[in-house]
Amino acid sequence: MNDAAAPVDGPLPWPKLDSRPGPDLMVCKARYDEVENPRTGRTMTRVVLETRDWVNVVALTRAREIVLVRQFRFGTGRVTTEIPGGVIDTGEDSLAAAQRELREETGHTASEWIYLGSVEANPAFHDNRCHHWLALGAVRTHELEPDPGEDLRVEVVPFEQALARVESGEIAHSLVICALARVANLSRDGLVLPSPGADEQGAR
Amino acid sequence: MNDAAAPVDGPLPWPKLDSRPGPDLMVCKARYDEVENPRTGRTMTRVVLETRDWVNVVALTRAREIVLVRQFRFGTGRVTTEIPGGVIDTGEDSLAAAQRELREETGHTASEWIYLGSVEANPAFHDNRCHHWLALGAVRTHELEPDPGEDLRVEVVPFEQALARVESGEIAHSLVICALARVANLSRDGLVLPSPGADEQGAR
Fold first, then answer.
1. What is the ipTM of this complex?
2. Between chains, do A186 and B183 touch, taking CB under 8 Å as contact?
3. Rounded Cα distance, B6 and A181, in Å
4. Could you give the CA distance from residue A178 to residue B165 in angstroms, rounded to a whole number?
5. Judgement on whether residues B83 and B97 belong to the same structural domain of the protein
6. Which of the four pLDDT bands, split at 50, 70 and 90, describes residue B194?
7. A73 with A30, same domain?
8. Distance (Å) from the C-alpha of residue A104 to the closest C-alpha of chain B?
């Protein structure tokens, strides 16, 4: 099987017949596309939330501590524990954004930056990606520079404690978990997947 | 340190002074909240995208193959490879939704269901969570029942191939990666985090 090529039998891309702007939602901009389902030939309206790419940072000190940020989140209406991150500004690349967000949100700078790849925020309706960076040798060098929409608290804890907080549910932001999954094993203890033929051998 | 209690010095929740409905975005409903930053005392408008909870399913056959779905996604405008999932209907619990989505999108049913916990979709502006389920003993028993907005292709591949597709970037949906991270180690080969004191020992 050739993964690089789409299978001959689809699924096919949906032709876009029309597109019109929708309301500005501050964190994103709505757009309404008129698309045709290649399976049925019928047209339908689908919303796209046009969103700038995001970045987040797994920042570690030389003592293998991770730099966390606690803040009130407007979507869930609760205080969350996350890694630093934010929106990539116009003309900024993802590394510059990662370095800026780490400094502004936590006052830390770092000596070594390693790109961890990116994920789609939600391909069903967002058009953007979140880029993950690993920052090594993080040190507190600056004052925090929270923007008017932020009220932040910084926590620097052993890296394993962050993983324990994923397990406990305290760290629950999907994009934070994606970043942590690039550098740590987040699978649950005791949740062992069956091996091929395990049933036949009576192992489960 | 007591993780259960919020630190005395905050961050504090932001008082909601007013709230008004915004446009219906099909996949979610916008709401505008007037909130007060406890750090500055200033009020500002913030958008919340009210969204039903979602569910997705890591479904494995007895041969340790995973059931994947390929479909065109309107947000990114490309064909993605994902695990089955969708929106939890009114009056439905997350298990029933997971079982329904697995059946409708892939024609599979499963003999054993294990809850893997949930994540916040994006606490910055979504109010919902995505619930992850592990389905064991998955078997093709039904025809697909795609809704008018879907054109699906099912792939059943060895579980390890799904992990390789995360590594290659073919599987890139953040919520799919969160679900897979509950049952597999997605951290990258060769990306070894520094040990405490490694610098001092000249190990890096």
1. 0.91
2. no
3. 26
4. 15
5. yes
6. low
7. no
8. 16
